[in-house]
Design a protein that fits this description.
The structure holds two protein chains of two kinds.
Chain A: E1 8-9, H1 15-32, H2 34-49, H3 52-61, H4 63-74, H5 77-95, H6 98-117, H7 126-132, H8 136-153
Chain B: E1 7-11, E2 14-18, H1 24-31, E3 54-57, E4 60-63, E5 74-76, H2 80-96, H3 112-120, E6 143-145, H4 155-163, E7 169-171, E8 180-182, H5 198-202, E9 208-210, H6 225-238, H7 242-259, E10 261-266, E11 275-281, E12 284-290, H8 303-307, E13 322-325, E14 328-331, H9 334-352, E15 357-361, H10 367-381, E16 386-388, H11 395-404, H12 414-419, E17 422-426, H13 430-433, H14 435-448, E18 451-455, H15 461-465, E19 468-470, H16 477-490, H17 496-502, E20 503-504, H18 506-512, H19 518-525, H20 529-541, E21 545-549, H21 551-554, H22 559-572, E22 582-585, H23 592-597, E23 604-605, E24 609-610, H24 614-624, H25 636-644, E25 650-654, H26 658-661, H27 665-674, E26 677-682, E27 694-697, E28 706-709, E29 714-718, H28 731-741, H29 751-761, E30 778-780, E31 805-806, E32 824-829, H30 845-848, E33 856-858, H31 860-865, E34 873-877, E35 882-889, E36 897-901, E37 930-938, H32 963-967, H33 975-982
Parallel strand pairs in B: 1-5, 15-16, 15-25, 17-18, 17-21, 18-19, 20-31, 21-22, 25-26, 26-27, 32-36, 33-35
Antiparallel strand pairs in B: 1-2, 3-4, 3-5, 6-9, 7-8, 10-11, 11-12, 13-14, 13-27, 23-24, 28-29, 29-30, 32-37, 33-36, 34-35, 34-37
Classes of the chains: A mainly alpha, B alpha/beta.
C-alpha cells in the first residue's frame, strides 16, 4: 500500500567520510601519475625560485583585468606605429638576403673599426680623395656604395 | 547505348566523364580542381548568390554552380581573368564580413569563409569592410543573427524555405543594404520561426550562430562587448594581411580542439532517428552539429534535437537511489539499493511465483537495455511478463503489418517517402510529431511535384499544405480505406499481376469488402461519395504510393484492424517491394522500434520470435542456462489489471512516466498503490516515482553508449558525450548489478558485448556488430550474417513460408461515439516543441519561455456556441475523470472536436479523461476515443499561447532566395563582367 509521497530525506555523508573518500581518490591519482607529479614539483620549485610563480599567480588572478589594461593600453594611437611595425619587421626579415647582409655587415664593421682608429680631427682634401681612390680597399668601397645608391634609386 | 549515359567535359584541358544532368561545380569538385565556393553546399544545392565559383565556360565567364554539364563543355578555372573575377567576388564578401578569427566563436576549423580565403591565398583586401546599419538580433531563444557579419549567401533562406520548409526567412533585396529578415521583417522572437536551428547549422560563418557557442568556444572570446571590440580592432592591427591572421587563428582553432569534444549521438526524442555531433566543453553543451552523412536526417534537425538538451544538466536529476521508508524516501548508496531490490524481488518470487512480477522497458533506452530487461525477466526471474511502452502507441501498426506482410516495420526508408509520387498521411500530425521526416515530404511536395493527401480530424500544418485534406469522423478510417479498396476492385484498377505473384487470400479479402459500399462509407465517415472515388482513382492511377500513419490510427479500439486495412490497400495496388512505396507507421519515441525488436514483449523473444516456439525457446534456454515459460506473459495493460485483481505484486518500470502517460491515470495510480514492490528507474523524480518503493537514478542518452533503432528499422550507435552525472548509472549497468546480485553470471564490460549476444541469438540481427555501426554507419534490419541489410524490405519476397504476403479480411462496427451527455470529442497529440509529457522539454528554458503552458484547442464555432473566448478556463468531464484547462480558440479544430497536447500535465493531463478502452488486438489504450462534456469556469482570460510563440507568426513562402532580385539591383555587376570591363 504505497501512497504517493514526495518527501525525500537527503543522504548526509559525514564531512569526515567525504574527506576520506576524496583523499582516497587523490591518492589513487597520485600513485598512478607518480612520475609526472614529481617532475611537476621540480618545475614548481624552479618557477618559485625565479619568482615566476608569484607573477604567474598574480596574473592569473586578475587575468580579465590585466588583459583589459593591456588591450586598452596598446590600442592607443601612439602604439599603432609599433604594432604595424611588428609584422612589417617580420616581412622585412623574410625579404632580406641575409647572406649578403651578413657579408656587407662584416665590411661595415671593418669600416667602423678603421674609422675609430683614425683621429676625428684629421682633414681630407680633394687631392687626398683622388689619391685615396687608388687605394684598392677604398676604391672597392666607393664602387659598392655607388652600386648601392643606384639600386636604391631604382623604381 | 551506354556511352550516352555519360557526358564528356573538358576542364583545364583534361577530359572528364560527367553524369548527365550533373551540376558543373560537383564535377569540378570531384575532378580535384580548386574553385572557391561559399554559398554552394551539396546538401542545399546551388543558390548562386556568392559569385565566387566563377569559371570560364566555352569562352564565357559564368557561375559554375548555376550550370548543368553538357557534352563538349570546355571549362577553364585557372585563367588570369577567371582568377581576377573570383578575387573580385571574394573581396565583396570581405566587404560584408570582418575577419577577426582569433576572437571569433566560429573559429573552429570549419569556418567556410576563413577556409576559402586561406585556400585561395587571398593576402590583402582591396576594399575595406563596411559596417551595416543594423543591430544584432538577439531576441530569440536559441540563436542570434549578426547582420554585420552576414555575407548574404542565402544558405539560411534556402534551408528555411526548401529544406525545413518553414518559410520564415527571406532576404529583402529591395533594402538599400539587404539583410535576412524574419516573416515580414519582425524580430526573430516574434516570427513564425520554429527554431529548428538549421539556419545556424548551414551558415558558413558566425552570422547565424547558436547562442550556446557565444563566448564559450574560443579561448579569448569570453569578454565584455567593449573589450571584445577593442580586441577585434587590435587583431586587425597586428594581423596585417590575411596570411599571419590565418596562422594565428588556425593555431587558436587547433587549441580549441583540445578543449571542445565532438561526439556523435542519436537524438533521443522522436522515431526519425536524427544523428549528429554534440559539442561539449566539460559538462556544458555548446551546440549540436548535424552532418551531411547523418543517414536519416542529413543536415536537418528540429528544435528538440538541436536545442533541447538542457534537461541533461538539470538540477532536478536524481543522483542517489531512493528507498521508501515510512512517509518519505531516503537517499541511500547504490550497494544498499541493489541489495534491497534483489532481496525484495527474491522474496516475492519465492512467496508468490515469478508471474507475480512484471517488467516494463523504456523505448527511450537502448536496444541493449531492452535486451537486458527481457533477459532479467526471463532468465533471472523466469517470467514473460515483460513489455514496453510501444504498447501505448505502435503495437497495433506492428500487428497490422505482421498479419499482412510479415515484418513489423517501415517498408523502406525516409528517402522512399521523399521519392513517392503520392504520400498519404492518416492520423499523423507529422510536422509536429516527426518534424524532420515531415520536412522531407514538404520539400518533395513544394519542389518536386509530390502529391500529399492528409486524413485527420485536425487541420494541422500538413493538412493546410495538403493537396487534399479529409476529415473523416473519428475512428472510421478503416471504413474509407476499405471502401477505396472495394471501389478499386469493382473498377478493376487493382494491380492484378502483383497480387497473382505476391499475395495470398485474395478471394476471402474481396468478399470481406462487400459491405463497404460508397454509400455506407460516406455515411459513416462523413466523406462525400465522389471524394472517396477521387481518392481511389488517384491511388490506383499513381505509380508510387507511400502511406504514413501514426497514433490517430493506432490509438483506437480498431487500431490494429485499421493498420491492417492500410496494408491491404497497399498490397491491392502493388505498392510494396518498390522504391518510393510502402507502409510507414511513424514510430513515436527514439527507440519504440528497437525496444520491441530486442525482446521486451510478453510474446516475443528478440527479433519477433514467439515464446511458444519450442525451438526458439530452447535456443535461449541453452544460451542462458535456465528454463523459460512457454506461454506469453502479460502486457502493460494486463499487468495493471492484474494488480487490481491481486495477481501481480511487483513491478519494475524503466524510463516511463506511466502515471501520466498511461490511459485512465486514476485507475493506473490506484494500481501502483496496491503493489508490494514498485521499482522505478528514471532521470527525474517523476509522478510515477512518487508511488515507488525504490527509485534508481539512470542517465540520459548523452551519458552512455548503445544503439537505437529508428522508424526506418535503422540501427545507429550513440557514443558517450558526457560522463554519467556522479551518482547515476546507465540502465544497462543497473540491470547488470541487479542480475548479478540475484545470482546471474552477467559480465558485460561494454554494450557491444550485449549486442553481440543478441545478434548471436536472434537471426533478424545476425550481422549486427558495433564495428559495422562505427561513426555514422548504420544497418536497417534484417541484417544477414555477412552484414547485408535491407533498406527496402521484401525484395526477396515476404517473410512467410511461401514468400507471399496475405490479404487479411476485416469487419467493422462503430463502437465509439459522443453522446447527448458527453457531447464533445477530445483528441490529443504532440506539440512540436514539447516531447510527450514534457519532463525533458519543460526543463529547456528557451522552449519553456515560448511555450510555457498547456492549452485546450476549441473551434470558433464551439466557442461561439458556449460564449467562450481566448484564455477561458474550462473543466472537461469524462466518465473516467476530469481535467481543467485554458482555452485557445483556433480553426485547427472544428465543430465539437477539442485538442489537448500530450505535454499538458498537472490538472490538464488528458489521461485523467481516458478510460480502459483498448485496441481489441493489442491492448493499446484507445487514447483517441474520449467523449466529454464541458463546464465553463471563466469566460475569457489571458491566452495560454504567448505572443512570441511560432504559431502566431506569419510565414513568407517562396522558392529559394530570389537571387534574380539581387542580380537586378542597380548596384550589382557580375564579377565576370566587372573584370571584362576593367580589363
Amino acid at each position: 500500500m504505497a501512497k504517493s509521497i514526495t518527501n525525500i530525506k537527503r543522504l548526509e555523508i559525514p564531512k569526515e567520510e567525504q574527506q576520506a573518500r576524496d583523499l582516497e581518490e587523490v591518492k589513487e591519482a597520485v600513485s598512478e601519475n607518480k612520475d609526472a607529479i614529481l617532475k611537476g614539483i621540480k618545475l614548481l620549485n624552479a618557477l618559485n625560485e625565479t619568482g615566476t610563480l608569484d607573477s604567474a599567480y598574480a596574473l592569473s588572478h586578475s587575468k580579465g583585468k590585466a588583459l583589459k589594461y593591456i588591450v586598452e593600453e596598446i590600442s592607443k594611437d601612439h602604439y599603432a606605429q609599433m604594432l604595424e611595425n611588428i609584422p612589417e619587421i617580420v616581412f622585412m626579415l623574410g625579404d632580406l638576403d641575409v647572406k649578403t647582409v651578413r657579408e656587407t655587415t662584416a665590411r661595415v664593421n671593418e669600416g667602423i673599426k678603421e674609422m675609430n682608429e683614425t683621429g676625428a680631427e684629421q682633414k681630407t682634401k680633394i687631392i687626398d680623395l683622388a689619391k685615396a681612390l687608388k687605394d684598392p680597399e677604398i676604391n672597392r668601397s666607393v664602387t659598392m656604395l655607388m652600386q648601392f645608391l643606384k639600386g636604391m634609386g631604382r623604381e | 547505348m551506354l556511352e550516352r549515359e555519360h557526358t564528356v567535359v573538358t576542364i583545364n584541358g583534361k577530359e572528364y566523364l560527367a553524369d548527365p544532368g550533373q551540376n558543373l561545380i560537383d564535377l569540378i569538385n570531384s575532378s580535384g580542381e580548386n574553385v572557391p565556393q561559399i554559398c554552394y553546399n551539396e546538401s542545399l544545392g546551388p543558390i548562386q548568390t556568392c559569385d565566387t565559383c566563377v569559371v570560364q565556360v566555352n569562352g564565357e565567364m559564368q557561375r559554375a554552380c548555376g550550370l548543368k554539364v553538357e557534352a563538349g563543355m570546355k571549362v577553364q578555372t585557372e585563367l588570369p581573368q577567371v582568377q581576377m573575377a573570383q578575387k573580385e567576388a571574394l573581396d565583396r564578401i570581405l566587404e560584408n564580413h570582418e575577419l577577426y578569427c582569433t576572437v571569433c566563436d566560429y573559429n573552429n576549423g570549419d569556418c567556410e569563409i576563413h577556409n576559402t580565403m586561406a585556400e585561395f591565398g587571398l593576402e590583402h583586401q582591396s576594399r575595406p569592410f563596411q559596417e551595416k546599419p543594423y543591430n544584432r538580433d538577439d531576441s530569440g531563444s536559441f540563436y542570434r543573427y549578426d547582420p554585420d557579419q552576414c555575407i548574404l549567401c542565402g544558405r539560411c533562406v534556402e534551408v528555411c524555405q526548401d529544406v525545413q520548409v518553414n518559410e520564415t526567412l527571406t532576404i529583402d533585396w529591395e533594402l538599400q543594404q539587404p539583410r535576412v529578415i524574419w516573416d515580414n521583417d519582425v524580430p526573430m522572437d516574434q516570427s513564425s520561426c520554429v527554431n529548428c536551428g538549421q539556419c545556424s547549422t548551414v551558415c558558413p560563418c558566425n552570422a547565424m550562430m547558436e547562442k550556446g557557442m557565444e563566448g564559450e568556444a574560443g579561448f579569448l572570446t569570453d569578454q565584455e562587448p567593449g573589450l571584445l571590440k577593442s580586441m577585434i580592432e587590435l587583431t586587425k592591427k597586428v594581423e596585417t594581411g590575411y596570411g599571419p591572421l590565418f596562422a594565428v587563428s588556425d593555431s587558436e582553432a587547433a587549441m580549441r580542439e583540445e578543449r571542445i569534444k565532438k561526439t556523435k549521438t542519436v537524438c533521443t526524442y522522436c522515431g526519425v532517428g536524427c544523428s549528429f555531433d554534440v559539442w561539449t566543453k566539460d559538462r556544458q553543451i555548446l551546440k549540436v552539429e548535424p552532418n551531411a552523412e547523418s543517414p536519416a536526417n542529413g543536415i536537418a534537425t528540429c528544435v528538440k534535437g538541436k536545442f533541447g538538451w538542457d534537461y541533461v544538466n538539470s538540477e532536478k536529476r536524481l543522483t542517489k537511489p531512493l528507498i521508501r521508508r515510512g512517509e518519505s524516501f531516503e537517499e541511500v548508496e547504490w550497494d544498499e539499493a541493489i541489495s534491497y531490490v534483489a532481496e525484495r524481488l527474491t522474496e516475492i518470487k519465492e512467496t508468490k511465483g515469478a508471474d507475480d512480477l512484471g517488467f516494463i522497458s523504456s523505448s527511450k533506452a537502448t536496444n541493449e537495455e531492452s535486451y537486458l530487461m527481457q533477459k532479467l525477466s526471463r532468465q533471472i526471474i523466469g517470467t514473460n511478463n515483460v513489455d514496453n511502452c510501444s504498447r501505448y502507441c505502435q503495437s497495433p501498426a506492428t500487428k497490422g503489418l505482421f498479419r499482412t506482410v510479415g515484418h513489423g516495420g517501415d517498408s523502406g526508408s525516409i528517402d522512399d517517402i521523399a521519392k513517392a509520387d503520392l504520400v498519404i498521411t492518416i492520423g499523423s500530425n507529422t510536422a509536429e510529431s516527426h518534424p524532420v521526416l515531415a520536412s522531407r515530404i514538404k520539400r518533395s511536395q513544394k519542389l518536386f511535384g509530390q502529391k500529399l493527401f492528409v486524413f485527420d480530424l485536425r487541420k494541422h500544418e500538413m493538412a493546410t499544405r495538403a493537396d487534399r485534406f479529409y476529415q473523416p469522423k473519428s475512428g472510421t478510417d478503416l471504413v474509407w480505406l476499405s471502401a477505396v479498396s472495394k471501389y478499386i476492385l469493382d473498377q478493376g484498377l487493382e494491380d492484378q499481376q502483383f497480387i497473382e505473384e505476391w499475395v495470398n487470400d485474395f478471394n476471402a479479402y474481396r468478399e470481406s469488402l462487400e459491405p463497404y459500399t460508397l454509400e455506407y462509407a460516406s455515411e459513416l465517415t462523413g466523406i462525400p461519395r465522389e471524394e472517396i472515388i477521387q481518392v481511389a482513382e488517384e491511388i490506383a492511377g499513381t505509380d508510387k504510393v507511400s502511406i504514413c500513419w501514426a497514433m490517430g490510427v493506432t490509438q483506437h479500439m480498431k487500431g490494429s484492424d485499421t493498420s491492417t486495412a492500410i496494408s491491404n490497400l497497399l498490397l491491392l495496388t502493388g505498392n510494396y517491394r518498390r522504391e518510393g512505396c510502402g507502409a510507414y507507421p511513424l514510430r513515436g519515441h527514439n527507440n519504440v522500434q528497437g525496444c520491441s525488436d530486442f525482446g521486451s514483449m510478453p510474446n516475443f523473444f528478440p527479433g519477433y520470435e514467439e515464446t511458444t516456439d519450442d525451438q526458439v525457446r530452447s535456443r535461449y534456454e541453452k544460451e542462458w542456462n535456465c528454463t523459460i515459460p512457454k506461454e506469453p506473459g502479460k502486457d502493460n495493460h494486463q499487468m495493471i489489471e492484474a494488480i487490481h485483481d491481486g495477481n501481480l505484486s511487483a513491478m519494475y518500470v524503466i524510463g516511463e512516466d506511466t502515471g501520466i502517460v498511461d490511459a485512465n491515470i486514476n485507475y493506473v495510480t490506484s494500481a501502483f498503490e496496491k503493489l508490494d514492490l514498485f521499482i522505478v528507474q528514471d532521470l527525474f523524480f517523476t509522478k510515477t516515482a512518487e508511488y515507488a518503493d525504490v527509485v534508481l537514478p539512470a542517465v540520459p542518452s548523452l551519458e552512455k553508449e548503445g544503439t537505437f533503432t529508428n522508424t526506418e528499422r535503422r540501427i545507429q550507435r550513440l557514443y558517450k558525450s558526457l560522463d554519467p552525472l556522479p551518482g547515476s548509472k546507465p540502465d544497462w549497468e543497473i540491470l547488470q548489478l541487479i542480475a548479478r546480485e540475484l545470482g546471474g553470471s552477467w559480465n558485460y564490460q561494454h554494450p557491444s558485448e550485449i549486442m553481440a549476444e543478441a545478434a548471436g541469438l536472434a537471426p533478424l540481427f545476425a550481422g549486427v556488430t558495433y564495428e559495422r555501426l562505427e561513426g555514422y554507419n548504420s544497418l536497417q534490419w534484417p541484417v544477414a550474417e555477412d552484414g547485408t541489410d535491407e533498406p527496402l524490405l521484401f525484395q526477396n519476397g515476404f517473410p512467410f513460408e511461401d514468400g507471399k504476403a496475405r490479404f487479411f479480411p476485416l469487419e467493422f462496427e462503430l463502437e465509439y461515439d459522443t453522446t447527448e451527455e458527453y457531447d464533445l470529442h477530445v483528441n490529443n497529440g504532440r506539440l512540436l516543441e514539447h516531447f510527450h509529457e514534457g519532463n525533458m522539454t519543460y526543463k529547456v528554458e528557451g522552449i519553456a519561455r515560448k511555450t510555457p503552458n498547456p492549452f485546450v484547442e476549441v473551434s470558433p464555432e464551439l466557442a461561439r456556441e458556449r460564449s467562450l473566448r481566448e484564455g477561458a478556463e474550462i473543466k472537461l468531464i469524462s466518465p473516467a475523470g476530469e481535467a481543467t484547462g485554458t482555452v485557445t480558440v483556433t480553426d485547427r479544430v472544428r465543430g465539437k472536436e477539442l485538442f489537448i497536447p500530450m505535454s499538458a500535465n498537472g490538472k490538464s493531463a488528458v489521461n485523467f479523461l481516458t478510460d480502459n478502452r483498448v485496441d481489441k488486438d493489442t491492448n493499446t489504450p484507445a487514447y483517441k476515443e474520449i467523449a466529454v462534456r464541458m463546464e465553463v469556469l471563466k469566460k475569457e482570460g489571458k491566452s495560454p499561447i504567448p505572443s512570441n510563440n511560432h504559431r502566431k507568426g506569419s510565414p513568407v513562402p517562396q522558392i529559394s532566395v530570389n537571387v534574380e532580385n539581387k542580380w537586378e539591383r542597380a548596384d550589382y555587376v557580375f564579377p565576370g563582367d566587372q573584370v571584362n570591363k576593367d580589363g
